[in-house]
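Following the same procedure, sequence and fold were stored together, as reproduced here.

>
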Amino acid sequence: MVVKKLFLLLIFVFFIAVASAIEINIDMKNEFTLNEEISFDYTISSEEDLEISYYARVDCTYAPVPEFGKKQAEIKANQTITEKYTYYLLNKDIETQTCKAVVAILEPEEIIKEKEFLIIGEKGFSFELVFNKKIFVLNDEIKIDYESNINPDIEAILIYPDKSREEIHLPVEIKALQVGTYEIEVKAEKEGYKTITKKEQIGVIENQVEVKKSSTCEIDGKCSGEENYQNCPQDCEIEARTLKPGEYNLKKIKSGIIFYIILILVIVISIILVAIGVIHYKRKSDIS
C-alpha cells in the first residue's frame, strides 16, 4: 500500500514539474469590430528541453468553426516559440458575442491557456410582414404592411401570378386582379443593423369556397350515435316530444350501462356452465 502511494506521488510530482516547466502567453486585442481580422500572437516557453504537441484556435458560439490543426515542436530549455493564429474576417453576418482564444499543449501533458475577447457585430432587429389575410377572392383589397422595432429602409417587390414585377412602398393596398400566387420580396436595412430579407406568398382564388360544416345528424329515421333532439330533431322527434332537456343524454347513459351489465352476466353464466360441465365430466371419469 505504501509503495503504491509513493508511486502515485511521484507521478503527481512529475506532472507538476512538467506543467511548471511550460509557460503559454496569448497577446491579442480585447475586442474586434466589422471588417477586422481576428488574430492573436502566442508564445510557448519551457525551462527544459521538451517535445510538445499543441494547437491554437478560436472558440465562438455564433461563428464559423475553425479547422483543428495539431502541431509538433521541440523546445530547448529557456527558449520560446512565437507564432500567430489567424481566424476570421468579420463581416456583416456576424453577431455580437464573447469568444475565447485558446492555446493548448496536448503532450507531454495537457495544459490549456484561454483568453476571452469580444466580437462587436451588427445588431439585429425584428421585422415581420403583415397581411389582412393570406387567401383572397378576385377583386379583393390586399393590404400589405410590416411590424418592426425600428424604422428601417425598405425595398419591396411584388411578383404577380403572371410573373410580372412591381416595386411597391409599404404599407400598400392593391386590388387582387389576377388569380394565382402573389409573392412579396422585401429587404429591410438600417445603418448599424444587420440586413433582413423576407419572402412571403399570398393566394387569390376566383370564387369564395363554401366550407360545409360536418354534421352528426344523418337523417335516417334512427336516433343513434351522437344524435339528440337538439342537433338532430328529424331523427329524434320522439325524444324531443317525450324527454325534457338534459334527459336524453341520461337515457343513453343508462341504456349503455344496462347493455354492459347484460353482457357481463352472459359471460359469467357461460363461465359457470363451463365449470359445471368440467366438474361433471371429471366425476363421471372417476366413477368409470
Remarks:
- The longest helix spans residues 247-287.
- The chain has three domains: 2-120, 127-205, 223-272.
